[in-house]
Amino acid sequence: MVPIRAIVVALGLSSSALAFGSDSVLRVAPDFTRTDIKGDVFSLSAYRGKLVLLNFWATWCGPCLTEIPKFVVWQRTYGSAGLQIVGISMDDELAPVIRAQEKYQMDYPVLMGDPQLAERFGGVLGLPLSYLIDSEGRVVARYQGDLDLKRLESQIKSLLPRRGNSR
Amino acid sequence: MKTSSTYVFAFILLSQSALALAEHKPAASIPTADLMQPAELAANLKSTSVPKPLILQIGFHNLYAQAHIPDSEYIGSAKEDAGLDQLRNRVAKLGKDTAIVIYCGCCPWSHCPNVAAAYDTLHTLGFTHLKVLYIAENFGDNWVNQGYPVAKGD
Questions:
Q1: Alpha helices, DSSP H only, in chain A?
Q2: Which residues of A touch B141 (CB under 8 A)?
Q3: Residue A102 to residue B95: CA distance in whole angstroms
Q4: How close B154 gets to chain A, by Cα (Å)?
Q5: ipTM of the predicted structure?
Q6: Domains plus CATH for chain A?
Q7: Per the confidence metrics, is the pTM higher than 0.90?
Q8: Strands A129-133 and A110-112
Q9: Which is nearest to A19 in space by CA: A157, A155, A139?
Q10: From residue A31, how far is each of A8, A24, A90, B8, B154 by CA, in Å?
């Protein structure tokens, strides 16, 4: 297994991109299967071979709502090059999540999170929170709090499995 | 002229709609004197000689169930009317000099949609020993990862 710090150095990411809690370092993304809010079955392992941006968010989280329009654009722009955005809402209720998905035209899988799923990712005790997972299922980076979206986009472009297909 | 007015009106409506999901009174509106630092509350909880305040979590259940301050009570999101009603009910029979600490920690302080609404409600009700736990980034970073006591579950 490649140490996470080595991956970070190899990719030229600064350590600020990683904000692991001392006891919550994830090296391999835990697989899980759930039904998304449209009723389709979602398994994280089905996206092996793609670069996955797993985004924990909520409708009550202002910074999350700032990020989502950019994620929508990235999915459309880089999807053919192997990027897959996945949204996991930490809302307590489903209704506002459905409204938000429609409002922001989130055309990527959106699932409802809960404490059990959150715990598998080391806890989701503050939003926004995103994981970047490479094509082999390894966690490349964890982002907590306000994102530098330009920098993240550069990192994503450098990790796309099929770079030639991105616009 | 009528057409441009219509566009302006539509733009205002759309702008308001875009913000509706995330609008809230900013946490920065809470007076600094009424903030409590996590280290101070943790020391209070550890002490055997200091009276314990009533600690209320006025955020989201998915976060409370993962980790919360021991003996703190889950109230509900103060950004919602139901949460504020629950808060009012919880304190209805308390003396106005009851020591109360409220906290959330869902997101960076400046983005928290709950703390200012809860503070305003309790302040308006006349509570005189009211503090808001200042969680700069989130409950994970500023409480759990500091090694302060944590409980899980409902």
A1: 4-11, 62-78, 95-103, 115-120, 149-159
A2: 19, 21, 125-126, 144
A3: 46
A4: 11
A5: 0.81
A6: 20-164 (3.40.30.10)
A7: no
A8: unpaired
A9: A139
A10: 22, 16, 18, 48, 26
